[in-house]
Amino acid sequence: DESGGYGRCSAEDVELLASLREARGDYPGAAHCIRQARDGLASQTEGDFIRRPTERNLMRDEAAYLLRGRAVDEARQLYEALLDDQDDWASYEGYVKCSKTLEKEDDALRKLDALATQRPKHRGPRLASLLLVDGDALQDRILRYIETHASSPSLFDDLETSLRRVQSLPLTVEGPPRKQASLLCMRRFLSDDVPVEQCLSIIKGDDTSASSDAACVLACTLQDAGNKVDACRVLYSAHARDEGNARVTLAFVDALQSIGAGEAALRTYASLGVKQIQLDSLGHLITPWAASSGFWAEVSLHCRNVLHVHDGCRRDSREFAHRALDCCNGARAAEIWQFQRDKLDRSTTKLWARCELIGLDLVLQCHSATKVVELLPQWETGPRLDDVSDDETFERVFGSLNIDVRARPAWTHSTSDGERSSRQKFVFRNSSAYHLATRELLAALLTDRQANAPLVDRVLASIRGAISDKLEQSCVDAVLSAYEAASAFKSDRDTSTKLFDVVSEKIADVATLLEALDPASTVEACHTRLRSAAVVLERTAPLLVVLCFADDASSKKKKAKGKKGKREKEAEPAWRLALSKALSSFLTLLTALKTSLKRDQTDEDAPAELPEESVLPEDGSRQEVAKLLGAARRVSLDRLLGVCGDKLAALQGRIR
Q1: Can you list the alpha helix ranges (DSSP code H) found in 293-416?
Q2: Three-state secondary structure along 580-643?
Q3: How far is CA 434 from CA 283, 340, 441, 444, 535, in A?
Q4: Cα–Cα distances in Å, from 107 out to 74, 120, 265, 332, 507?
């Protein structure tokens, strides 16, 4: 009975009733429920409750429901009452939203300015006032906020939203190291020049936080200018000084992988200790550079860990939802299941991890058609191609991108959080669709299952069009032509002759691009050759399976009938010669790739000739980065040679 308030109310009772009314769109009713709970809060309760609601939480919830129900005046009064001695940003934000809706910006500004004068250490009043002004007034208030909170390490994060609304800002890098570091972040964010000397001066100082931020800003600036080794040197020193700083660690990972030091980047990433649910929000940081350095086994383990966490979360969700119900906490049980259903079950990262394992199995294990047939039942337990083929279905089934796009600071990017999220979702979706289409084609080729050919063709054409790297395009073209040839071979061998000739031509195109790579020992050239070798081995993995299938099928001969005796050797049919040519072309490609990797492995100048030009003073970081790069590159070469050797061994016995 709500007529006299809640004499025995728990937070769980209130949340459940309010959420039920919210679910049917009755926001005034939900607000009334909260108000009644506030009226009954003063009465003493008997019995055990998990927790009691607080007046502040109830007021904030009531104000939020009133605002959604268009009772803006009442909501504003409640939010204004919450602007007390607690620096509660949610209340300030609600107050500003109500004031803008009611067109009472001037009154709100006077109130916020008065609160800012009364509470100089609070950030809320000044930050809220920034949401109410534009133009010169906004610039003036930003500059005043900088002066007032110059010592705060979160100064840039506080102002990021407002900085997006100004075209430029007169920022002079001066004052204490902490303030200078924040100003450097802002200058970088606003695309202003970043003075190298001032960065180096802050980095050498005693303020560790300021030194780390200045190092990240300087490293990003150097990378933009093409000085990748210098960026690694700056971050190597910063990471050695402040190993616990996640911002520095991530920047160091990015810098290392940009010069081809994949093994060092992987070790640095491991120091972050990403685990449990963080694998869903931060696991994207390992892609795609780990695979490009030959660490397919590590990426495979990472994907399996992601799936293991999701399996555990689903079990835990059931358990804790039942515990909540046992404690009469229906609101919390509903919240747990909603999070599981809307966020984890629809996780784009989980989709990527499950589909990526198909491609990784093809690279690491599947050197014959028999092995693929063995793994197909396992692959087919994953998502359907239909689930990722159109935008509406994808968003409904796997549209929850739970990654933390703010793991890297906003000033390292020229795009917004939304744009980065959309780009990462596009990458995950395309990668997943490619692997699912590969699964469908291999299943149709190696078994009696029928593939949805129009759907597969449409998906692959879309993915092919999104690939910008010419070498990767050529590899995909070779694989698709092999599928076409093998499908024709399955039904009518004579018609496959010209198609296998096309396969040989496509493989030759890949070999030509590989041969044209710069053989120099510079950092960039060495990195390009490593990445290109990984692209060839990964993208042509299905090609080996398809050619092996055709070769196995052609080797099945009928037993000879009649008298034994000498017979003239029959001429090879045209399709057999074309198939042998395709196999030989692929063998030649892999042999050339292995020779190139071997040459890099024995090069005395390996890992690479570090550039002589540098904007940094000479110190020990140059030698340390050279050591890291050398060791990392040797490990990558060993991994690539191992996979290349396995594929060569599978091919060599088939050449006639």
Answers
A1: 296-326, 330-339, 348-364, 369-379, 386-389, 391-398
A2: HHHHHHHHHHHHHHHHHHHHHHHCCCCCCECCCCCCCCCCCHHHHHHHHHHHHHHHHHHHHHHH
A3: 20, 27, 11, 15, 14
A4: 16, 20, 53, 39, 72
Q: How far is CA 306 from CA 277, 340, 355, 382, in A?
A: 8, 15, 12, 14
Residue type, 560: A
Mean pLDDT of 251-261: 93
b/e per residue, 9-39, with b = 16+ CB within 10 A?
bbbbbbbbbbbbbbeeebbebbbbbbbbbbe
Model confidence pLDDT, tens digit, residues 32-89: 878 777 766 555 445 444 455 678 888 888 899 999 988 999 999 999 999 988 889 9
Kindly write down the DSSP assignment for every residue of 37-93, as one continuous string: HHHGGGS---S--S-PPPHHHHHHHHHHHHHHTT-HHHHHHHHHHT-SSS--HHHHH
Extract the tokens encoding 598: 């071997």
Cβ contact 252:274 at 8 Å:
no
Provide long-range contacts, Cβ within 8 A and 24+ apart, for 44-50.
45/7, 45/8, 45/9, 45/10, 46/8, 47/8, 49/10, 49/11, 49/12, 50/10, 50/11, 50/12, 50/327, 50/329
Q: Could you give the CA distance from residue 46 to residue 80 in angstroms, rounded to a whole number?
A: 33
**pLDDT over threshold 60, residue 300:** yes
54: phi then psi, degrees, rounded to nearest 5: -100, 155
Question: Which letter, b or e, does each residue of 99-117 get, where b requires 16 or more Cβ atoms within 10 Å of its Cβ?
Answer: beeeebeeebbebbeebbe
pLDDT cut 70: percent of the chain above it: 92
Question: Distance between CA 88 and CA 85 in Å, rounded?
Answer: 9
Where does 55-207 have alpha helices with state H?
55-68, 72-81, 89-101, 105-118, 124-130, 135-148, 155-163, 177-189, 196-203
Do the Cβ atoms of 484 and 468 come closer than 8 Å? no
Tokens of 588: 């030649």
pTM, entire model: 0.88
Specify the pLDDT at position 554: 81
If you average pLDDT over every residue of the chain, what do you get? 88
Cα distances (Å, whole numbers) of residue 21 to 69, 80, 339, 363:
12, 25, 19, 53
What's the Cα-to-Cα distance from 295 to each of 363, 430, 637, rounded to whole Å? 11, 21, 10
What pLDDT is recorded for position 51? 54
**Tokens 């020229």 identify what position?**
414
Flag whether pLDDT at 182 surpasses 80: yes
Token reading at 140:
């003036």
What is residue 400's three-state secondary structure? strand
- CB neighbour list of residue 118: distance below 8 Å, 6 or more residues apart: none
The answer to whether residues 650 and 367 touch, using CB atoms and an 8 Å cutoff, is: yes
